[in-house]
Amino acid sequence: MVERANRPSALASTPALAPQPQVTFSDDNSRVTAVLPTGESVEVLLYGATVISWKSGDGAEKLWLSEAARLDGTKAVRGGIPLVFPVFGTVPNHAQTAKLPQHGFARTSRWEFLGKSSSESAPGSAAADLSVKLDFGLSSANLDPSARELWPFEFGLIYSVLLNRDSLTTSLVVTNDDDKPFDCQVLLHTYLRVKDITAVEITGLADASYVDKVDGAKTKTQSSPLTITGETDRVYSPAGDAAVIVTESGAEIFSVTRDNLGNVVVWNPWADKAAGMADFAPNDGFKNMVCVEPGSVSGWQTLEPGDAFEGAQTITLYS
Ligand code: TA6
Questions:
Q1: Is 107 assigned to a binding site?
Q2: Residues with CB under 6 A from ligand 1
Q3: Residue 189: active-site member
Q4: What are the strands, taking DSSP E only, across 119-243?
Q5: Domain map of the chain by residue range?
Q6: How many CA atoms lie within 13 A of 131 on its CB side?
Q7: Which atom of ligand 1 is nearest the CA belonging to 265?
Q8: Domain 22-119+128-317, what fold?
Q9: Between β-strands 244-248 and 289-303, what pairing exists: parallel, antiparallel or unpaired?
Q10: Which has the closest alpha carbon to 271: 179, 198, 195?
């Protein structure tokens, strides 16, 4: 090689980049999967922007997904984290949303994948700071015409799914892009996986008032840790923003924290209701799940033109 003055010196060696999170598409681009180098993963259907799997680094699944869940876009997913917007349940006396299907149209719409971002793990940085965020969008512009007809408002939704090594954060931003106000409700309908529902206790709801939907929608107050011994369907309005802790056989397994979501719904269909749902399998799957659902569902968020509403949950695993 001819030596020449000022020849740039080759780097002695390119610093090895730390392994980066991987994001892949599958099933005809209908699913997005993100995997951290340490093994944690999350899988999201573009249908409903539904998280259908969240695994810890050892491969253990943390969400419950029915074995009969429809994953082909023909029905809201039974399990994972379906999104509830603009209405929780059905509210016949609310004119704007009275014509909408139960839990609204967000969970049964095809969302767009907006992109990914991952933590810049510098060479040699601790794996602990690794994370990857997936963003999804739904707006009146890409909403099914039948849904637009039932709810004729210009809106935008951005849903972010952030996977860290020991937690999953999902957040929803709603914007009113219209020239008139609209009301909405928002809920993250999370199906947490447990080994044995009869060994589960839920704390963090002490002294919270709740509507008991299996007892004539009576308003009650939670006096002790919640155990699930039958069909349970409660809409809690905790006074503060304390974490909801799910323990099993005395050991803490999940901590659920809320950001700007004033309600927590706790649901387990138990045996009869589970047997009555064609997409709930196995029939005794109610023993392995409990829904802890942060939301804003008592009353309505009224968004004026240009307003935005953001709510989020973080589910943290105990190692
Ligand atoms: O979040 C609890 C709940 O509102 C229950 O009343 C039950 O209806 C559950 O949602 C499931 O609703 P879905 O429409 O998914 O069958």
A1: yes
A2: 76, 89, 102-103, 189, 213, 233, 265, 267, 291, 293
A3: yes
A4: 131-139, 155-164, 167-176, 182-188, 191-193, 200-203, 209-212, 218-221, 226-227, 232-237
A5: 22-119+128-317
A6: 13
A7: 1
A8: Beta-galactosidase; Chain A, domain 5 (2.70.98)
A9: unpaired
A10: 198
Ligand 1 atom closest to the Cα of residue 291 is 1
Question: Does the annotation flag 102 for ligand binding?
Answer: yes
Place of tokens 């610093």: 15
Of the listed 3, 67, 293, 310, which one is catalytic?
293
Atom of ligand 1 nearest to the CA of 102: 14
Q: Does 22 show up as a binding residue in the annotation? A: no
pLDDT in tens, the chain (319 residues): 556 677 666 656 666 777 889 999 999 999 999 999 999 999 999 999 999 999 999 999 999 999 999 999 999 999 999 999 999 999 999 999 999 999 999 999 999 999 999 875 555 656 556 899 999 999 999 999 999 999 999 999 999 999 999 999 999 999 999 999 999 999 999 999 999 999 999 999 999 999 999 999 999 999 999 999 999 999 999 999 999 999 999 999 999 999 999 999 999 999 999 999 999 999 999 999 999 999 999 999 999 999 999 999 999 999 7
Contacts of 229 (CB under 8 A, 6+ apart): 198
Taking CA atoms, 148 is separated from 69, 97, 99, 154, 305, in Å, by: 26, 11, 11, 9, 18
103 catalytic, yes or no? Answer: no
